[in-house]
């Protein structure tokens, strides 16, 4: 079935992989790609067209005209040097934007809203609690939005990836727990299709975060997590 | 912490993702998928820029097979795109997980060198970013000096940002393949001669087998041609590879690949075909990329890593020098776990520092046993130099500055085009 997929933050590595997977699934899907950088969007559009995509639109901001079957929001930053910016990008901007879209989705009475959160939101840790708290706030926001949309048949998904090998994490030491953007993208498509509420990607992070969440504070404070 | 495929040592300074919107100040080097074995893709004194996310297709003409892509695109992705449309890589190394930029920077060769030469012959144009000039276009008619220096230039002339590659037409994703057992260098050379019309030839060699102190040079000669439409149904299909591969979770004990296990493996490999000659129809994935099946096979060698040693020696007295090298290895107590023999044809390589030249190329894998391995390499280097051959920088981690300068007399001319802000551990080692 032909779908209209809108991606905000489309030039990020995970979003790009999601776009590639949708094109692979059906070249006739209509993709609307939103990002701040028009040159990067043009490069991405050329790439997706070569991969077979037949209907790709690009823009620097979202002005929804036709029904959206899937809205993916993939904006975010791991950089917490600027605390205000980190919270704005990872939480405030997304919440403000989604609030404005509520009437649109209420009216169309269908669709999936998928937003990239993080496992870092599961427990406050000394290493990245600014980022983590913004992502935690985002998850609570999405939980409320899901509740709000329950009578409107609009699906809300919070995606919680673990370590992903992207430009954002180029400087990190990579190991066994790391996944490629394509692995995450595959999981995102599946979670959207199954209308899940939250999904850990790859799935093993559910177990890891269960343990991390349940370590008693006295012991937790002795770790450097 | 990161390294190359052979993991000779680790680099502590984290990689940064390549992004021209951020200023580049220090010494630097563009880093692809790090499938080079030695230190040509490593930088200790400076910043490595990871090119892997600079990987978009830019233009593709399905009528002519001309593809333009950003340099960080992997060959595996090019295959996924072009095979269903009836196109194939004109030259490919033994793994599909190399970047386009890396392939150009090493002017890579494949099993079809005897017919088509190196990949540089299939690159009509590329973009090269240099700190002082920004991005410039290089081709056989534009910036010709930089074109010649950048092909095989180990990333030292600038950052290759995009490239055009001329693909070749295929009718099937499969190849008609023949495996022929042989024993002795003469038999290998004879088979090579008989197989000039086959686009792909290579020989797998059992380096551990010897009689009375002499290496027997027994092996399996493999030759193949792209299957054509008229054959059977299976060969008709233009289905690309799948991304399925197995992962080794941890480093294996470094003694896993010892002379005993290696010789056992080699004997089994030699005898895996019951008859002296076997014909089969094989998909391009197992034919060109048998080791990709195990996506991190370098971990088989354990934490100490391993070396790949690849040289080419001219045909003149080639047999004598090759026998000398094989005898040295067979009697050294070091087992080369995987050895490959192939001949290079007479088509000149386009790059100033390109490795391939006409002759016989021998490629060996050795577990890293420290000084003992280095001593063996010094002895092998001496034979290569006496034979007027050369070593492959993409594989090398040990050759001396003297050896490099003898192998590559063009190095002085090359250093005029090398950018002063770009360096690699290889370059610092061989030009000190």
Per-chain topology:
The complex is a heterodimer of chains A (225) and B (432).
Chain A: E1 4-8, H1 13-25, E2 30-34, H2 38-50, E3 55-59, E4 70-73, H3 83-108, E5 112-116, H4 129-149, E6 155-161, H5 181-193, E7 198-201, H6 204-214, H7 217-220
Parallel strand pairs in A: 1-2, 1-4, 2-3, 4-5, 5-6, 6-7
Helix pairs in contact in A: 1-5, 3-4
Chain B: E1 16-17, E2 28-31, E3 47-50, E4 57-61, E5 66-70, H1 75-82, E6 87-88, H2 100-105, H3 113-116, E7 126-130, E8 134-138, H4 144-150, E9 159-166, E10 168-169, E11 174-183, H5 185-194, E12 200-206, E13 210-211, E14 214-215, E15 218-226, H6 233-236, H7 259-270, E16 277-283, H8 284-288, E17 306-313, H9 318-330, E18 339-344, E19 359-367, H10 371-386, E20 390-391, H11 401-407, H12 411-417, H13 425-430
Parallel strand pairs in B: 1-3, 2-3
Antiparallel strand pairs in B: 4-5, 5-9, 6-10, 7-8, 7-9, 11-15, 11-16, 12-15, 12-18, 13-14, 17-19, 17-20, 18-19
Helix pairs in contact in B: 9-10
Keywords:
heterodimer; A: 225 residues; alpha/beta; Rossmann fold; seven-stranded parallel sheet; 7 strands; globular; B: 432 residues; alpha+beta; Uridine Diphospho-n-acetylenolpyruvylglucosamine Reductase, domain 3; Alpha-Beta Plaits; eight-stranded antiparallel sheet; five-stranded antiparallel sheet; 13 helices; 24% helix
